[in-house]
Amino acid sequence: MNDYLMTFLVGGIICTIGQILIDKTKLTPARILVLFVTLGVILGALGIYDVVVEYGNAGATVPLPGFGYALSKAVMEEVDKEGLIGAFTGGIKGTAGGISAAILFGYIMALIFNSKSKK
């Protein structure tokens, strides 16, 4: 039960920060997205996000900072294995599964539902 609560709290805090940024700043959603991913990379590279993931589980890995964290971890592991070339290939290898799933599920939803443009 504690795992579910921590997942909910960590994910909720991340989403709350995003909502506050939308409401209280002039940042566009695209800039907030980039900010969250970049923070995930930086905190992941410094080892700080590891603690957040340890306590928050999916609440920390599913939101956008989790994507940046996955990028940083994959790049660091690949650099340890392959050297400098790992800086270019690590992010692709580490996040390929998630990106592929997003494309596949997006395509399935496009087949099932009728999309409409905003007017």
Automatic annotation (TrEMBL):
Asked if Repressor is a keyword of the record, the answer is no
One protein family per Pfam: SpoVAC_SpoVAEB
Q: Which residues cross the membrane?
A: 6-22, 29-49, 94-113
Record's keyword annotation contains Transmembrane: yes
Q: Which UniProt keywords apply?
A: Membrane, Transmembrane, Transmembrane helix
Source taxon at top rank: Bacteria
NCBIfam families given for it?
A: spore_V_AE (TIGR02839)
Q: What is this protein called?
A: Stage V sporulation protein AE
